[in-house]
Amino acid sequence: MKPTFEEVLDQYTPMIHHIIKTLNIYKENDRYVHEATIALWEAFCLQDCRKGSFTSYAYSSIRGKLLNHLKKEVKWENTHTFVEEIPEEALDLTGDFVDVRLEEYTRHLTVKQRKWVEECIINGKKLDEVALQEGVTVSAVKSWRAEALKKLRRIVIRCNDKISLNS
Questions:
Q1: Quick check: pTM over 0.70?
Q2: CA 59 to CA 9: how far, in whole Å?
Q3: Tens of pLDDT, residues 28-40
Q4: Do 25 and 72 sit in the same domain of this protein?
Q5: The CATH number of the domain where 134 resides is what?
Q6: Per residue in 118-131, pLDDT tens?
Q7: Quick check: helix, strand or coil at residue 167?
Q8: Residue where one domain finishes, among candidates 79, 108, 143
Q9: In Å, what is the CA distance from 47 to each residue of 9, 43, 55, 103, 111?
Q10: Residue whose C-alpha is closest to residue 108's, from 155, 144, 145
Q11: Among 23, 51, 79, which residue terminates a domain?
């Protein structure tokens, strides 16, 4: 007769804690115990006695699920940054400062590419609005955008390289 999941959970709880300990998980322990319990439940439901012992299947299922969860956590932490405090005064991006910086970055763009930057980026217009205003197709404005972005990326990379060399 097949044991119930509660019996299996009681039997394998020490294994869950052992795996958590060997993976050096010390933060949010309850969360990882929960993930491991879910992995044990999935292993319990999918077990096939003809393929090997349940103990080794449960161990690899639990460990694998916890490692996947850890990878997701690390990836999330690497892509999200937290700001401890938000400055009360925002940087003033009006007037001469913007004009000088904008000219610095857009001087290598064609007239049409600058038109895209000014109208879409600065003025917030949509592609179809700019196309109608300039008397061209939307795909023409899209090509201005694509070429402008390529050039701007190259310029930004060059500026970053110069900054890192000077540091």
A1: no
A2: 13
A3: 889 999 999 999 9
A4: yes
A5: 1.10.10.10
A6: 888 888 899 999 99
A7: coil
A8: 79
A9: 14, 6, 10, 66, 66
A10: 155
A11: 79
